[in-house]
């Protein structure tokens, strides 16, 4: 689906018509993938949608990292290879996701999204790995 087909802006306009927290959010501005992100630059609803979309990236790849690590931990032969293999696996999925976006009309693949996904997965893999390793020791 193209961005235009899946945008949540119309839904956000209906649900958040009073623009809650606009004053607080107005002070936030940053650059992401070469584009300025702020309410002044993109508008309230697109700014909120940006955080929803990036939050979805982080959540999905955090859960992927947790699941892969937990599902493969007992099969590890070399514990020092397990962590990088899990993170690289998640990075590969993120790269394929962006490749798919490249093939879809009206979508923009971003290297920054791959890095965001990888960071979320790395945090999840680290936390799960430490928790499982600690459980194994006790």
UniProtKB/TrEMBL annotation:
Record-annotated VanZ-like domain positions: 45-131
InterPro entries cross-referenced by the UniProt entry: Phosphotransbutyrylase, VanZ-like
Key words of the record: Membrane, Transmembrane, Transmembrane helix
TM regions (residue ranges): 50-68, 116-133
One Pfam family from the record: VanZ
NCBIfam families: vanZ_1
Protein name: Integral membrane protein
Species annotation: Lacticaseibacillus paracasei NRIC 0644
